[in-house]
Design a protein that fits this description.
Blueprint lengths: L1 H16 L16 E2 L1 E3 L7 E3 L14 E4 L8 E9 L5 E11 L4 E2 L9 E2 L18 E9 L11 H11 E12 L1
Parallel strand pairs: 1-10, 3-10
Antiparallel strand pairs: 2-4, 4-7, 5-6, 5-9, 6-8, 9-10
Helix pairs in contact: 1-2
């Protein structure tokens, strides 16, 4: 079991950081990406994540809003919540995809109708609340030029690669730590 966990963590780190465009400045295309504005009515960028949205709370995912989606080209929206821990490993806490392209917000503890969820780093489907108070948590929203041909519970690496291949615009809201 320990070897499997290490392999999953290594694959996740590669998928998240090695040029796939999900984390960091890399882009899967040669064209520069349009920027989305991402916000939350519950916390500001670089402010602490309210503890109710962490593993000590019971509210599930925080509410999010986004704007600036290029409507003519966008076929779906994806959301990835991730963090880099003190050892430099990247963990995906939530992967949500095939959100309707006209959607501009996400309610607390919810999955939009018709949207699907991929596996997170813990190997489960759904929002895996952050637990480490010192980490920075990133809530990244992606406008995609396609709906992903994946099923609910799709593998993390495959889902992140598909998101990266179809991203035409992206934006991010970061929580500096958990309050």
């Amino acid at each position: 079991m320990g070897h499997r966990r290490i392999a999953v963590a290594a694959a996740t780190a590669v998928a998240l950081s090695a040029g796939c465009g999900i984390v960091g400045g890399g882009s899967p295309t040669e064209n520069s990406l349009d920027g989305l504005s991402v916000s939350s009515p519950r916390f500001r960028d670089q402010a602490p994540l309210p503890s109710e949205f962490s593993c000590t709370g019971q509210s599930g995912n925080p509410p999010l809003r986004w704007s600036g989606v290029p409507q003519k080209q966008t076929r779906s929206i994806a959301l990835v919540v991730d963090a880099t821990n003190a050892q430099g490993a990247v963990e995906a806490h939530w992967v949500l995809f095939n959100v309707d392209s006209l959607t501009t917000e996400l309610a607390p503890n919810s999955v939009p109708k018709g949207a699907l969820q991929g596996l997170s780093s813990n190997g489960k489907v759904g929002y895996a609340p952050p637990c480490r108070p010192e980490d920075t948590y990133r809530f990244s929203v992606y406008a995609l030029n396609a709906e992903l041909a994946l099923k609910n519970g799709a593998g993390l690496r495959e889902t992140l690669e598909q998101i990266a291949q179809h991203t035409i615009a992206r934006g991010r809201l970061s929580a500096a730590h958990i309050e």
